[in-house]
């Protein structure tokens, strides 16, 4: 009984710290979009919409590399220190972001921070999945992943409260607080993955990073990884385009700064609801069905937004857009997280999300191009709707169950470890 209680207590610490890591990850990523009005108004820098889109994408390039590198490393050294290392890395980098004397330095430190941002996601997913109860893996993952839009809510509130009086540097500096809050707590209380520890104590030697890569990229799994990567590409493009450019798009539609930022807040609230509800349905009906419905609904809603409805209706549609873009991405992460065996889970999730982050790079650039060329509010959301439709089509290609792949992966790992 004591052992069960101790295990439950550790699982709660994992859930709480992983969720906190995702909250600060979401804040530090999304706060850039909240700061765009102040960045464009900064007279010494004279930044265009395209310039800002390129700076935003530098963080995403770092996230892509961070996701690709963190998976194999944490599959080797463990989830605990992988997560602690990522949080420490991006917190220190955010100090450099806040103090940047030029746009070039700002972009450099956003890239450096992105390496840590990208590593948090696959590491947090792997650690959560390996501590979550079997029947609540998707829901547990959703609670953690909902930390990302919760961070977006904090970014919107911080921008509304501080942007006009204190400027963008104060918003960025807040992103360094995890260095003195979450990191010490994680060092004290975050347990290692039980599955990782069991493998460490077993008589079978743990596969090397090279062997983990070979197992994850066995020929039979490559088509599955590609499908997940393409679906992630679409979801990342939508999430980062909207979170970066939604306030500015709303301003082009005639809304003031406060109202424009409130739409970003509405988007994040919708994402939390969509991620939680969608993942609960995924535990019951399967991830594939929920992700397909989510993408399809997003395409429909984004088309309705492009028609410029009344303000009240627009708020409702933006909330649903958050639920079916970032909310669907949360379910998609759970899909990948439950799909692969624990031995290669971080590597597989890291690859599919890492390659998918090409969409996150494209999103801010696409949004900047649409705003910079003044294509109009309606056409911009019409483009986003077509991306959501592509996500639904790619998800339809994914196999509905992980059992066969999970067994095959475990067998492949066992054979490699025995060599």
Description of the molecule:
The longest helix has 40 residues, at 2-41. By secondary structure, the protein is mainly alpha-helical. It is 83% helix and 0% strand. The protein is built from 18 helices and no strands. Helix 1 packs parallel to helix 6 (147-166) and helix 5 packs across helix 15. It is globular and about 60 Å long.
Beta strand count: 0
Total of DSSP H or I helical runs spanning 4+ residues: 18
Report the span from N to C terminus.
39 Å
Query: Cα-atom Rg, whole angstroms?
Result: 20 Å
In short:
The chain is built from 18 helices and no strands.
What are its keywords?
single chain, 419 residues, mainly alpha, 83% helix, disordered C terminus
């Amino acid at each position: 009984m004591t052992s069960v209680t101790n295990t439950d207590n550790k699982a709660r610490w994992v859930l709480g710290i992983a969720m906190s890591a995702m909250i600060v990850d979401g804040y530090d990523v999304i706060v850039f979009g909240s700061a765009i009005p102040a960045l464009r108004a900064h007279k010494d820098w004279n930044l265009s919409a395209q310039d800002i889109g390129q700076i935003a994408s530098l963080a995403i390039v770092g996230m892509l590399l961070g996701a690709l590198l963190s998976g194999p490393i944490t599959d080797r050294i463990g989830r605990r220190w992988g997560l602690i290392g990522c949080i420490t890395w991006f917190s220190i980098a955010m100090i450099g972001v806040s103090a940047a004397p030029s746009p070039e330095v700002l972009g450099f430190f956003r890239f450096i921070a992105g390496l840590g941002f990208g590593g948090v996601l696959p590491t947090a997913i792997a650690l959560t999945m390996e501590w979550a109860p079997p029947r609540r893996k998707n829901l547990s993952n959703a609670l953690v992943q909902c930390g990302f839009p919760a961070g977006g809510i904090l970014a919107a509130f911080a921008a509304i409260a501080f942007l006009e009086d204190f400027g963008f540097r104060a918003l960025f500096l807040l992103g360094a607080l995890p260095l003195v809050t979450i990191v010490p707590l994680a060092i004290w209380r975050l347990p290692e993955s039980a599955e990782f520890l069991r493998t460490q104590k077993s008589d079978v030697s743990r596969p090397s990073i090279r062997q983990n890569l070979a197992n994850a990229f066995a020929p039979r799994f490559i088509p599955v990884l590609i499908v997940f990567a393409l679906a992630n590409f679409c979801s990342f493009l939508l999430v980062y385009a909207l979170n970066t450019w939604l306030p500015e798009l709303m301003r082009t539609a005639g809304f003031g700064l406060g109202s424009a930022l409130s739409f970003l807040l509405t988007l994040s609230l919708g994402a939390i609801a969509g991620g939680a509800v969608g993942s609960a349905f995924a535990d019951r009906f399967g991830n594939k069905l929920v992700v397909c419905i989510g993408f399809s609904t997003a395409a429909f809603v984004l088309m309705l937004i492009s028609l410029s409805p009344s303000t009240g209706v627009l708020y409702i549609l933006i909330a649903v857009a958050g639920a079916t873009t970032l909310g669907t991405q949360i379910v998609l992460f759970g899909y990948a997280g439950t799909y692969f065996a624990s031995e290669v889970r971080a590597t597989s999730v890291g690859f599919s999300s890492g390659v998918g982050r090409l969409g996150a790079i494209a999103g801010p650039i696409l949004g900047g191009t649409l705003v910079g060329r003044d294509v109009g509010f309606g056409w911009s959301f019409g483009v986003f709707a077509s991306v959501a439709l592509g996500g639904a089509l790619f998800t339809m290609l994914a196999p509905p169950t992980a059992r066969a792949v999970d067994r095959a992966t475990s067998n492949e790992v066992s054979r490699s470890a025995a060599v």
